[in-house]
């Protein structure tokens, strides 16, 4: 079954534009298709249009971060027929919906010594979470929610390296203590990352020797609960 | 006949006493008896859960068990405690080991774990116990001239009760991009600067979209938006001066209550000029 969607699509070329603009499109698409198919239809209209492709391709629709593998049917049911399409992070836009991911990619190096190079594909699957956090735009030192999710996964995979891995995220400046709940800004809403981050914070607080003064204060608070 | 008990041992209790006062008065006006849950343990919220999840679940399970012992349904005065109860129920249903641990601890307190204790938000009392049609008949004051923004950053469910109640009152609901964003409370202890920036962005967004007042049903959001509004203004470099109210307070005013102390407005830092 086809549906007609009214789109406002973010357009920007970092090489030539000073400011972004939004272009309107009205597109008919089969509801069983995916967001990636919708983006391909836009490109048929506008050859110069660029968007993320591949397994972890993600964009923002009506302010929520999602993978382009989402079905149009689900999108229509949740957002209606008027959609605003933007890159995962408008401040890092390179061309239309594609972004500069250097900050995301570089954070993997923090755990490089403790994990296998093949684990990077797990890290890459957290790109949506990385850019859903508002803190990445406010503090360039912030390690990122992707790294915290990845840390949890790697502690599960390499339990003997738990303490070393945990020590990478325990600092106050840019560390896990600056994480804010992003479950409401992911689509579909997902609390899995929040549960992982709760676990990591609990583990840091349980350590016999606190990683730093801030963790020591948190330990004292938690003892009084 | 349903029996209710009010859970008032909330996060930041002293700073957000208005939630308790207004919910008590609202229930009184709606004819619902709900004495405070005695010997309750404090809700430590998601921030407490992140530091000591076992204590978080134990406290909530303790309160669920206490209410069960009184054969009462719990009424929450705000979102944080409501979400906490839901999270504990979910966690204990999922994790048998944790459930057993909490259950044993409760036995030592002379209590029995109860995951079927009903927990209602005070807004759900209006919708499900009184009924929206009945509530509409009781309304004496319209909010037709007001643009109201509803902050949902801490809301766990996608319910639209806030909107349903505000629609009955004739209010114009303002939509704004930052509706689901963080209010910054969770990082306040780690970075006041970033926390204020986050909350300030939300408040500016409501202001720039023409809101006359903002609904925040979570005690933590209220603390950021009302209690720290001067800091937020400094952080974003703009005046905001927007009153922060809960649905209970708006509902009370709609029912004709004009006593500031009963609505809990006296403890607000930013005074509402609705009365």
Description:
The complex is a heterodimer of chains A (225) and B (275). Chain A is α+β, with helices and mostly antiparallel strands. Helices cover 36% and strands 17% of the residues of chain A. Chain A folds into two domains: 2-99, Beta-grasp domain (Ubiquitin-like (UB roll)), CATH 3.10.20.30; 102-223, Fumarate Reductase Iron-sulfur Protein, Chain B, domain 2. Chain A has a five-stranded mixed β-sheet. Chain A has a two-stranded antiparallel sheet with strand order 6-7. In chain A, helix 6 (145-157) crosses helix 8 (192-206). With 275 residues, chain B is of the alpha/beta class. Helix content of chain B is 50%, strand content 9%. Chain B has a four-stranded parallel β-sheet with strand order 5-4-6-7, sandwiched between helices. Chain B has a three-stranded parallel β-sheet with strand order 1-2-3. In chain B, helix 3 packs across helix 4. Chains A and B meet through helix 8 and helix 9 of A and helix 2, helix 3 and helix 8 of B.
Summary, kept brief:
The complex is a heterodimer of chains A (225) and B (275). Chain A has nine helices and seven strands.
- The CATH topology name of the largest domain in chain B reads Rossmann fold
Helix/strand order of chain B: EHHHEHHEHEHEHEHHEHH
Kindly, what is the distance between the CA atoms of the first and last residues of chain B, rounded to a whole number of angstroms? 36 Å
Derived from helix and strand composition plus strand pairing, the structural class of chain B reads alpha/beta
- C-alpha end-to-end distance of chain A: 55 Å
Order of helices and strands of chain A: EEHEEHEEEHHHHHHH
Low-confidence stretches of chain A: none
| CATH level 1 name of the largest domain in chain A | Mainly Alpha
Mean pLDDT of chain A: 97
Helix content of chain B: 40-55%
Shape of chain B: globular
Number of domains of chain B: 2
Instruction: Return the average pLDDT of chain B rounded to an integer.
Output: 95
Give the quaternary arrangement of the chains: heterodimer
Largest interface: A-B, 29 and 30 residues
CATH topological fold name of the largest domain in chain A? Fumarate Reductase Iron-sulfur Protein, Chain B, domain 2
Instruction: Bin the helical content of chain A.
Output: 25-40%
As a whole number of angstroms, the C-alpha radius of gyration of chain B is 19 Å
Largest beta-sheet details of chain B: 4 strands, parallel
Strand order of the largest sheet of chain B: 5-4-6-7
